[in-house]
Amino acid sequence: MSTHAYIKLVPQSKQKTITLEEVKQFLHYYQDITNKTGKQLDWGYKEAAFPYQIIEASERKEQWLYLKGDGSRYRTIIIGVGQEQTTNEETGETSEQSFIQITLPHGATHGDKGKANEFCKFLAKKLEGELHLFNGRVMYYYKR
């Protein structure tokens, strides 16, 4: 059974919407900064920090990225974007809320879950969003 984590873009977030291309750019930025850390440490940290290949879904214009691991410790993480209708409890108004969904499919390893949590926290911090973790807990990265 697959499990999901969500990064919701709330009104206090840095941006109100997100595209798959922007998520891909954030992942490339993550790879870049971990590569620089590895150079400073004189160690191949980039491969340890991001042991995945980014593969875009090619069928029916799906809104998903597949992170394909090396097969042993890391297998697959799926990242998607979407929008949902939310209702403001105080005013009763409905609005669109963008989110990023991180999915661990059946067969994902503990390494995948650890890396997915890292990526979730990184993205939520960069976007100043609301992170709903795999275990159901919520972390707030926006100013309240």
UniProtKB/TrEMBL annotation:
SUPFAM superfamilies: Rbstp2229 protein. Gene3D superfamilies: Rbstp2229 like protein, Rbstp2229 protein. This is Two-component SAPR family response regulator. It comes from Thermaerobacillus caldiproteolyticus. The lineage of its organism: Bacteria, Bacillati, Bacillota, Bacilli, Bacillales.
